[in-house]
Amino acid sequence: MPLTHDDEPTAAPRRRGRPGDAPAPTERVTHVVMSYSRGFAWLRAVGPDGFTPALSAVERVQCRPGVTCVVGDRVEVAGGNVAGVLPRRGTLSRAVGPQQQLLAAHVDRLVLVVAVGRSLREGFVMRGLVSATLQGLAPLVVVNKMDVDDGDAAAQVTAWQALGIPVQPTSVVRGDGMDALRTALAAGTSALLGHSGVGKSTLINALRPGANRRTGGLDWQGKGRHVTTMAEAIPDGNSLLVDLPGVRELGLWGATPEDILDAFPDVKAAITRCHFPDCSHDEGTAGCAVLEELDAGRLDPGRVELCLRMQQSVALGLEGGGRL
Ligand SMILES: Nc1nc2c(ncn2[C@@H]2O[C@H](COP(=O)(O)OP(=O)(O)OP(=O)(O)O)[C@@H](O)[C@H]2O)c(=O)[nH]1
Ligand SMILES: [Mg+2]
Ligand SMILES: [Zn+2]
Predict the structure, then answer these.
(1) Which of 81, 151, 165, 223 could be cross-linked to 160 through a Cys-Cys bond (beta carbons 3.0 to 4.6 Å apart)?
(2) Shortest CA distance to 170 belongs to which of 191, 152, 145, 193?
(3) C-alpha 166 to ligand 2 mean position (Å)
(4) Domain match, 50 and 4 both
């Protein structure tokens, strides 16, 4: 997908110049926010052909009072300042306590990165999938650090694939899955979201030589510290990879119990077959289809519990914030 804004008229290539230079009458340039911090945006100009080398210098531009940006924003520059933010689409948000925090805009794909070890959490993946659906983003689950897998992660990958969840196992160390990931992320804007230390920045450095993202977040045993503190978009042609700080919480605003169930087709099929209207599906109700499937080993008890817990927390209005 081209990076130019949908509403933008086709543009003539831009001369090199400072942001805020009066454009020639026929010239329209979109500025894309590559990074933002405390009233300053790092911008790249983008023409109809994307980030051509002549357009690709990053410029640090102060925002006018009252203007705040997120990475991926398309902005107007006037008089040497960021004067306004164009209408957002493809927004990615998360929960900070009861507040919704916008992380990025104009995102096409939500890449949910987990890693072998403590961060291989089905709860994170399922919340991320619901969140992607609600926010209109295409999901991709990346299971990184497959080089240290003892078999559990491979089994999890197979189970998710059997459920139709798009999953790409990777190892940056061994190079496994990196060509397939490069192809999957070759177009559009992809935001990498996951716990600290799963290898988001390391993946981006491997996919974008020269990105020079600082790495060394938590290792696979959970030791270490958060490394990425500022979101940054890294371009290549018309595609962007957004490196985000590690997150622990991801809200599910506006989700209904039905939205949750839709993300669990395996659980949904059994619940739909249960004929007891008030069945909680988790106690010893004789004849409950969910319990029958569990007893027969055709349904994963962890997934049933996760689905019911997520439904309950949505129904009780506890999302907002949900621990991943
Ligand atoms: N064994 C192994 N280690 C990896 C792999 N990918 C990344 N790592 C290591 O995992 C640690 C964390 O990597 P980062 O890329 O900093 O993780 P991050 O997700 O960006 O972390 P934050 O910026 O804190 O959110 C580093 O020590 C990497 O070298 C992999 O495929 N295999
Ligand atoms: Mg990082
Ligand atoms: Zn039941």
Answers:
(1) 165
(2) 145
(3) 23
(4) yes
